Amino acid sequence: MDTALLALALVPFVGALLPAAAKRLFGLAPAVAAGATAVLALGLVLWLAPAALDGGTTVHRWEWVPSLGLELALRWDGLSFLFALLITSIGTLVCVYASGYLEPHEATPRFYGLLLLFMGAMLGIVLSENLLVLVICWELTSIASFLLIGFRGHDADSRQGARLALLVTGSGGLALLAGVLLIGDAVGSYDVSAVLAAAGTLQQHPLYGWMLGLVLFGAFTKSAQFPFHFWLPHAMAAPTPVSAYLHSATMVKAGIFLLMRLYPALGGTAEWFWVVSTAGAATLLFASGVALYKHDLKGLLAYSTVSHLGLIVLLMGLGTPLSEVAAVFHLINHAVFKASLFMAAGIVDHGAGTRDMRRLSGLFRFMPYTATLALVAACAMAGVPLLNGFLSKEMFLTETLQLRELGWAGLVFPAAATLASIFTVAYSTRFVHDVFFGGPSRDLPHEPHEAARWLRFPVELLVILCLLVGLFPGATVEPILRAAAGAVLQAPLPEFTLKIWHGFNLPLAMSLLALAGGVTLYFYRRYRGGLHDYVPAWVQGKRLTEAAVAFVQDGARAFWPGFDGERLGRYLFVLVFFSLLVGLLGYAGAPLVGPRPVQPASAVDVVATVLLVLAVAATVVLHRERLAALALVGVIGLIVALAFARFSAPDLALTQILVEIVTLLLLLLALRWLPNRTPRVALRGRQARDAAIAIAAGAGCGALALAMLTRPVDTIAGYFTATAPGEGGGYNVVNVILVDFRGFDTLGEITVLGIAAIGIAALLHRLELGRPALDPLGRAWASRRNSLQFEVVARPLLPVGLLVSAYLFLRGHNAPGGGFIAGLVTGVAVFVQYLARGATWVDERLPLNYAHVMGWGLAIAVVSGLGSLAFRHPFLTSSTPTFELPLLGELKFASATFFDLGVYLAVVGTVLVILAELAGLRRQERG
Amino acid sequence: MTASFADLAGLPWAAHWPVVPVLLPLLFGTLLVLLSRASLAVQRTVGGLAMLVHLGVASALVALAEAGPPLAYAVGDWAAPFGIFLVIDRLSAWMLLVTALVALPAWAYACAGEDRGGPWFHALFQFQLLGIHGAFATGDLFNLFVFFEILLIASYALLLHGANAARARAAVHVVVLNLVGSALFLLAVGCIYAAVGTLNLADLAVKAPAITPEDAGLLQTGAFLLLIVFALKAAALPLGFWLPPAYAAAPAACAALFAVLTKVGVYSILRVYTLVFPSFEPGPEGPSGLVLPLGLATLALGAIGALAADRLRPLAGHLVLVSIGTLLVAVGTFREAGYAAAVYYVAHSTFAGAALFLVADLVARQRRTLGDRLDAGEPVRQPALLAALFAGGTIAIVGLPPLSGFVGKLAVLQATSPDAERVWVLLLVGTLLTVVVVARAASALFWRTGDRPTEGKPASRLASAAAAGCVALLVALTLAAGPAFDYANATARQLLDRSAYVEAVFTVPSLSAPVGGAPHLAEAAAVAERGFAPTEPPAPAAASSTASPAAEGER
Fold first, then answer.
1. Neighbouring-strand partners of residue A891
2. CA-derived radius of gyration, chain A
3. How confident is the model over A584-623, as pLDDT tens digits?
């Protein structure tokens, strides 16, 4: 049993892949594959039927995500059975019908695949024991419906209808999700069984109103209840098999299914009664009235569907046991007669080439068979005795009369029901009379013809069902109805008998009044105008929704450019502004200055500081003069270097100076290819704003620095100074930190340099820049080489630079220096050669691939770090073995020196890659 | 080799696991730099080998992280808190696996042609992975900064790869903003170091709770500024406006890989604010209280941006922003269910973003005249394939059933149910708006095409397979949601159990114990012995910080 149930849930999804796979076999293969899948599913339903018909409930579970309460739990009871039967049987018939309906050129594998996908999702809804899985399948039906409505995507109505349906039903699905989550929170489980058992908890819950509202919003959008009904008529742009299947027989009943499923848990309260029954009654009355004024056959049927859904919802809302039974009964009957009517409409469309009732007339002559079928089905819809629709309508009318305790308000429901019944009879009459009777039609696109065998067969079957149920309800529908209604009520069924003749009573009188009134209305009404003649355009749901979407979208488009696009200044402003804000937030209330006394400032300190401030201010003022600004930045760098030296950080000072030199030179080189002045971009107002934020941010940084420096916190630095000479094997703590304690950081930083180098190389690789003909002062560029003096001076700089590098490198572990600094010195030394003699000259004499030098540097650094693994120590562990060498004596050698060599090479490589690429630009320009 | 011998003679080989994910991309990247003159075929072979190795390593690390407590590794053999530590716990291993899984199709997509832009592509790709792996593996705040730099410079270089004007402009934006971010990072690190005196995350976790009120402002400012930096990395709005133009301009393979980059920011928030800062902050006023509002802002503004988008690639970027917002909302709950949701969602968001960028590129390439503009007209060359991939990617990222986006969103909704009003409304309305946008885009791209034949070329098998691979990852993540959530829940519990992390770091066997038995060892042993008690400030740290002002006064 559990296997069959699981198979039932999965068969359509697996089958959805078959039509595409079978595409190449023969023309109808996709249809056959889909039909076979549907038949298989129907067979499973019938095989499982006995378990449901005896009133039992079985639940089978397969774990999915237990911690979220997501569980593939399947529930098999009378209600699941009824819906599964409708879904699979009508699905089978629709597959048959579609095989005759679709044009051969239409992408049938996609169509059948989507149809089966929908069937699977819909089965998922009705079989779910887990409410979350129900929501998943719910949204899946929305997606499938979107894709099926838009099946003929080249048609604008299809696309709009598809999007509208997705928007409305999708939002309902999201609301349902929220509702289900609230219910799950309150109950502690998403199991249907647990929720049904917790009716008391739910109805007394403070959030009951929210739960009910969200669930009802989901149900009403899906089941097209007023005022969310408007998507359904537009969904009629779908191919007719889709309309028959999704938009009348099954999907639109998902909302009603939900009401039925949760009725024992949420129903029976005053809120339920008023909201559900009012929505149902309004929908019933409104839609049946509108249906009469639709000229399109499918439009009429769409509104008729809406009104019948309203009827069922009204019955659900009344909340008496018998009204629930009547709801289930009418749901069955509606599915049967409405599906057949849609199919008949499709046949007319197919045979006559139009669905417009103003053009159609007298088709009985051409398609008597179809006309008879449609006549019977329409009578069932109108509630003519001896047909199935009559039985459930009688029950409905009876139930509307049971509201005596409401006083005069109780009269509203029977009055509305009678009025709606009059409309129903009228539009049913119109459906039949306008199309099949009257004089012969004149302006049809082509000569009407009777439908093909496969188009008619499903209609015949359904119409026979209408008759059988109408004539022998006890033998045909009663067991199913009892099982389903029992599952809805979760309680013993009330006494009722299904029979055609209940004697002369008020409901019968209302029925007869409706029949007489409806026929009269049809023959005396004026319907020449379309509905839009009566209703202003702006109250139409589609217009309103589209306007709302357009409004939101326009709003977004108007709002967005403020953020999007090429506004670096604004991004920066936001970033700095937020940093300031949260910085202030974080510091609020804490003392700024710590207990450590502030050192007295010497005169030199003051002068340097003033110079620094002046240089910064000058940079800001002169920032558009690029050359001057660059020079000023160099000044700032030098003062910073001096500050490092002043506060006993010779390594930092050395590094800073060298970095300043290298970056200055590279920038100067780059400036040759750029305009000499930065164009003015900022407006004055923005400049003031930016200045304010910059000054504030600077003040913030200064304040933080003051706070940091005046706090005597016990840091890990003491350990480094204590351990460097012994464990680290060097007296220069900075260098030992760089290559040993935090060598891993250094490895990362030289990798950054290396990446920057190849990034620049990749960027400039194929770049060709034309050199401006004149220099910024309007003079022509000199074509001769650099000055002889410079060449002469530069030449010996290389060996000297290399020697200094070697010296700095070797002493680095114990005195200021090290691989990084040495690498910069070497880089500058080679750099000067480029400046003095030009790229070609140097490249000829120094044929090195600098990127590979950088790569080797990285490789040496990594491999030296890996060496310690061989000695079973972690990566980058250093050791300081002492060697006895002949002549030199004892030599203490830190293994970190290898690492430092890697750093050296990486730095040299990086500097020269950038240089060579910038120089390469010049070469291209010459060549 | 017996265990006893391993104990005596050195580390067992297995102890080196945490450094492997950092070393491998560095080695492969270096090798590829040296191979820059070799043929593209050679580079692709090495790159492909690297990608497979990364996947294997990440899977092994997940298995290891599942099996036991966090794995700590003392680089350079310096004991905590002095050396740099790498720590692989469930969260890091998961992030590494997610990275490896998404990097493989991204790389494969690049091999379909984008790697021809210059000689360094494959090396840069490895360096990008180096930065990502390092950020996930490190247990040191300054080292995290270093890996952020690697990330940044590598992404900059990749953005400029095969540069055009739009790419260069977007890249400049990214790099300038992120350099400001780096400066802020340094400032934040300075604040934290000045207040606590250490940057080792485990050590910070021990010492930060014991901060004196005088220093708390400095520490909290550091924590706040750090959050801005991480939020910038994560592209949380209003700081993340750079993302859509940058990702739209990037080569598709890089954009797909960049889907992980933003997750580095989210990961860092999750790591630092669960491990270091949870106990001293008073509540929603503290730095981590900003995460939820940032997430909601990102969600809302991302959805607005998606509505306004008129091209597919920026639309994809905005959808990614929405998913980042959702992710930050999950993180911002700062409770176990939220962490678990975030762990699952982070994988989903990464895969979905990558899938979307690859599909968008395929669409753009097959529409000769329209490119990725969301205008009707020219059809794509392979409508069935691309529509299916597009459907998969978009259904996932907007969070519709049945793909992982829905499962993840469900988890986020459940985790946020106490704050249901403001969070649910935004999450659900955001979903609805993005559904509308995506439906409109699908309609324009695949339905409103007219009968005009396209001149676009069909996608190469490799490119289609790469995009399909990303969608397949989403499907797999959905089907395996059960085991994935088992892992995520355990990860959430591990994040809350800070003592395990601290203990792992402080009990790494240090063979070269400093001469003279430095005091930190005693402290580490004490921490290991008593475990971690967030409410009780550890004695040594408290003593030192209360004693020092007096000592300072004497000087």
1. A883
2. 42
3. 888 887 788 888 888 888 898 999 999 999 999 999 888 8
Q: Residues 6 or more apart from A800 whose CB is under 8 A from it?
A: A829
- Whether the bond between B81 and the residue before it is cis, its omega within 30 degrees of 0, is yes
- Mode of pairing for the β-strands spanning A70-76 and A58-65: antiparallel
Q: For B144, which residue in chain A has the nearest alpha carbon?
A: A745
Q: How far apart are the CA of A204 and the nearest CA of chain B, in angstroms? A: 19
pLDDT tens readout for residues B209-250: 888 888 888 888 999 999 999 999 999 977 888 888 888 888
Quick one: closest CA in B to A591, which residue? Answer: B214
Contacts of A923 (CB under 8 A, 6+ apart): A839, A840
Residues of A in contact with B147 (CB under 8 A): 748
CB spacing of B26 vs A140 below 8 angstroms: no
Q: Which residues pair with A156 in a beta bridge?
A: none
- The strand pairing partners of A73, in sequence order, are A61
Please judge whether B449 and A154 are an interchain contact, meaning their C-beta atoms are less than 8 angstroms apart. yes
Q: Are A897 and A879 in contact (CB under 8 A)?
A: no
CB atoms within 10 A of CB A520: 14
Q: What is the CA radius of gyration of chain B?
A: 24
What is the domain partition of chain A in residue ranges?
A: 730-772+785-927
B200 strand-pairing partners: B140
Q: What ipTM was predicted for this assembly?
A: 0.91
Q: Are strands B71-75 and B84-88 parallel, antiparallel or unpaired?
A: antiparallel
> In this structure, are strands A889-892 and B71-75 parallel, antiparallel, or unpaired?
unpaired
A504: number of Cβ within 10 Å = 8
3-state secondary structure of A63: strand
Chain B residue numbers touching A701 (CB-CB < 8 A): 187
CA distance B343 to B404: 12
* A156 SS3 class: helix
Scanning the structure block, which residue is given the tokens 């188009």?
A455
CB A851 to CB B511 under 8 A? no
Using CB atoms within 10 Å of the CB of residue B111, give its burial: 0 to 12 exposed, 13 to 18 middle, 19+ buried. Answer: buried
CB-based contacts of A675: which residues, under 8 Å, 6+ apart?
A: A626
Name the token pair of B24.
Answer: 């491998």
Answer whether A859's CB lies under 8 Å from A902's CB.
yes
Q: Which residues contact B132 (CB under 8 A, 6 or more apart)?
A: B99, B147, B151, B260, B261, B264
- Say how far apart CA A867 and CA A873 lie, in whole Å: 9
Q: What is the pLDDT of residues A444-478, one digit of tens each?
A: 777 888 888 888 899 999 999 999 999 998 888 99
Cα–Cα nearest to B195, from B213, B182, B183: B213
CB atoms < 10 A from the CB of A528, how many? Answer: 8
Q: Is the dihedral of CA B7, B9, B11, B14 positive or negative?
A: negative
Q: What is the dihedral of CA A788, A790, A796, A802, to 10 degrees?
A: -140
pLDDT band at B515 (very low <50, low <70, confident <90, very high): very low
Which residues of B fall within a CB distance of 8 Å from A586? 217, 220-225, 287
- Residue B41, CA distances (Å) to A602, B32, B47 in order: 64, 12, 10
Beta bridge partners, A761, equal none
Instruction: Give the three-state DSSP class for A780.
Output: strand
Query: What pTM was estimated for this model as a whole?
Result: 0.92
Hey, are the CB atoms on B308 and A559 less than 8 Å from each other? Answer: yes
Chain B positions touching A171 (Cβ under 8 A) are 432
3-class state of residue A499 by DSSP: coil
Phi, psi (deg, nearest 5) at residue A74 = -110, 140
Return the SS3 of B281: coil
**Interchain pair A568, B228: CB under 8 A:** no
Chain B residue closest in CA terms to A71 = B482
